[in-house]
Specification:
The structure holds 2 protein chains of 2 kinds. Chain A has 11 helices and 7 strands. Chain A is α/β, with parallel strands linked by helices. The chains are: A alpha/beta, B alpha/beta.
């Protein structure tokens, strides 16, 4: 969690310094969800998420330099600099992206579950989405099909209480979004996403049940987004108060784990400070290495449009 | 053997399902109901639900699930009940399927075919008569084909299934009962990006695809009677486009008329006309002509509907103007 947060600090630094462009959405505050959940997966389970994707990519083991290089639009990035912050991928790590159209990728997530079932595999597809995405029409279509066809897929709503700048209470008729699975005869529940130990415990139980039954599930994980929606979201007073953010910091998953370790397990605070310092140093090094890496060659613009041909060249 | 366009499509799918266990069909009413245009007739009984899957009416969901499955190595053939319904799935096709290979830096492939009837059938009116091929041919990352003959339908569908990229395969409903020959060869495929010359000539080049190829051929025969020698180019594949064959013909005949069923304004024929003008300007003895569909929503009344779809007389009138 500390490494993720340090990485996000560096990604924001890249944005502020102009080395990263476009949109940048950081995961700060939500770390317990990705780690608690993904630490419970089987290594060959396919994972897919939306545009707030840095933490998932890092946890799955993608080299942080390669991730940062992608965010900076460099040749050694996960997508050779052609995807950007929102579109990290790694076939080797069973990471299917990295998607920018809110809700659109939930259909792909169901398709991953479809392929597992078609081939008779024992993996489970994990499809993360935001609370905003849970309002997209296609999500309802694929919940229906996932249940109708017994697809081994888990839809994990990372409910950080905001769809960009619109609060949950203003975008969801019933703020308990997990209940939407009820109409599709699908298992659903809401869990706390601010305690990594709790998330992991719940995830292990839920994932093993889906793997055994090949029945999909909709899980709503409650967490909180400390950062703005994107790096360009610089007036958060439009949708929340400073007091609310301060209150939410008291639930910070990193501090929560640190307190648990020091108070219940007697871990020396200096060890935690060392971990923190090492993570910051590591990610500063990641920033420097990515920033020093080359940009894509001009000819790269034409490659990968197709597997077997290039588009016509020139304007 | 002699067969129909519809049966040739089915034959191609049967052979590809039998050849590759990753190939399956997915779509609305394609199984138990036998397919709205009967292209998939008998396949559910033959291959069962595992390979021929009926779906809810959820076009974005169907295309998205097929796309996700393709990312994991399956090779879905999605039937759109009509290409007009693919409008619902544009986000999945354009924002997802067409972008994955590029956005992932080549890590993921999307071998998916989206096929179905495109263009006017018979009084299906404004919401079921769209020609969508020009919309899709605008999108890098997709391949778009529109076969006009029975042999092309068979050979190009097999190519589409074996292609590792998303392919839009449009079938004009007016062609389903067309008769023709297909070879007795399960490995027969036809490459994309190759025009076919359907009628050789030296005075004017008529360029069409799908059903309009036949309209152009009828016009060419009528022009023969006038002593005018027309060359008919069947584009077959819009993306990739074999522009060189079109250019070579125009450089020979010095006149070009592009014929397409889609709305005239902004349809794919406009792209072909622009390219001819860019590349063959010095060879042209007349402006590049276009005959397209009327720029109106498709009306229901048969006489009005027929007015909208270019026919032999429309092509002849435009050709004679260019030859005058």
């Amino acid at each position: 969690m500390v490494r993720m947060r340090a990485f996000e600090d560096q990604s924001v630094r890249a944005f502020r310094s102009g080395l990263a462009g476009g949109y940048l959405h950081v995961y700060t505050g939500m770390e317990a969800t990705a780690i608690g959940w993904l630490s419970s997966r089987q290594p060959d389970d396919p994972i897919i998420t939306a545009y707030r994707d840095h933490a998932h990519a890092l946890y799955l083991g993608i080299d942080p330099v390669v991730c940062m290089a992608e965010i900076m639009g460099r040749a050694k990035g996960t997508s050779k600099g052609k995807g950007g912050s929102m579109h990290l991928y790694s076939a080797d790590h069973h990471f299917y992206g990295g998607w920018g159209i809110v809700g659109g990728h939930t259909a792909l997530g169901a398709g991953l579950g479809f392929a597992i079932k078609y081939k008779g595999g024992n993996q489970v597809a994990h499809c993360f989405l935001g609370d905003g995405a849970a309002n997209a029409g296609v999500f309802f279509e694929v919940m229906n099909m996932a249940s109708l066809w017994d697809l081994p897929v888990i839809f994990i709503i990372e409910n950080n209480e905001f769809a960009m700048g619109t609060r949950l209470e203003f975008h969801a008729a019933d703020p308990e979004m997990h209940k939407r699975a009820e109409g599709f005869n699908m298992h659903h529940e809401r869990i706390d996403g601010m305690d990594v130990i709790d998330v992991r415990r719940d995830a292990q139980r839920i994932i093993s049940n889906v793997r055994e039954t090949s029945r999909p599930a909709l899980i709503e994980v409650m967490n909180y987004r400390y950062a703005g929606h994107g790096a360009a979201d610089n007036d958060q007073t439009l949708y929340r108060s400073q007091q609310e953010v301060e209150l939410a910091w008291k639930r910070d998953p990193v501090h929560r784990l640190a307190n648990l370790l020091t108070e219940q397990y007697g871990v020396n605070k200096q060890i935690l400070e060392k971990i923190q310092r090492e993570a910051e140093e590591e990610m500063e090094g990641v920033y420097d290495e990515a920033a020093a890496s080359p940009k894509p060659e001009p000819d790269e613009v034409y490659s990968d449009v197709y597997t077997d041909m290039q588009p016509e060249r020139g304007h | 053997m002699t067969t129909t366009y519809r049966d040739a499509l089915r034959q191609a799918m049967v052979e590809e399902i039998e050849r590759d266990e990753n190939v399956f069909l997915i779509g609305e009413d394609i199984g138990r109901y036998q397919g709205t245009f009967r292209v998939t007739q008998g396949l559910f009984e033959r291959f069962k639900q595992h390979r021929v899957l009926d779906t809810p009416i959820s076009e974005p969901g169907i295309v998205g699930i097929a796309t996700g499955a393709a990312m994991m190595g399956l090779r879905p053939i999605v039937e759109m009940m009509t290409m007009s319904f693919s409008i619902l799935a544009l986000d999945q096709i354009i924002n997802h399927a067409a972008k994955i290979h590029y956005m992932s830096g080549g890590q993921f492939k999307v071998p998916i075919v989206i096929r179905g009837p495109g263009g006017a059938a018979n009084q299906l009116s404004a919401q079921h008569s769209h020609s969508m091929e020009g919309w899709y041919a605008h999108v890098p990352g997709l391949k778009v084909v529109a076969p006009s003959t029975v042999e092309d339908a068979y050979g190009m569908l097999k190519t589409a299934v074996r292609d590792d990229n998303p392919v839009i395969f449009t079938e004009n409903p007016g062609l389903y009962s067309l008769k023709g020959e297909i070879p007795d060869d399960k490995e027969f495929t036809l490459p994309f990006g190759k025009c076919a010359i359907r009628h050789e000539g030296s005075d004017i080049t008529l360029v069409g695809y799908s059903r309009m190829t036949h309209v152009c051929a009828e016009a060419a025969e009528a022009l023969d009677q006038d002593g005018v020698s027309a060359e008919v180019i069947d584009v077959r594949s819009l993306l990739p486009l074999d522009a060189e064959t079109i250019f070579a013909s125009v450089r020979k005949t010095n006149r070009a008329l592009v014929v397409y069923e889609d709305w005239k304004s902004g349809g794919f024929g406009a792209e072909i006309a622009a390219r001819i003008q860019e590349s063959c300007f010095d060879y042209l003895d007349a402006p590049v002509g276009r005959v397209g569909g009327l720029n109106v929503p498709m009306p229901y009344a048969r006489n009005l509907e027929l007015m909208c779809i270019p026919n032999k007389e429309d092509v002849l009138a435009a050709a004679r103007q260019l030859l005058a």
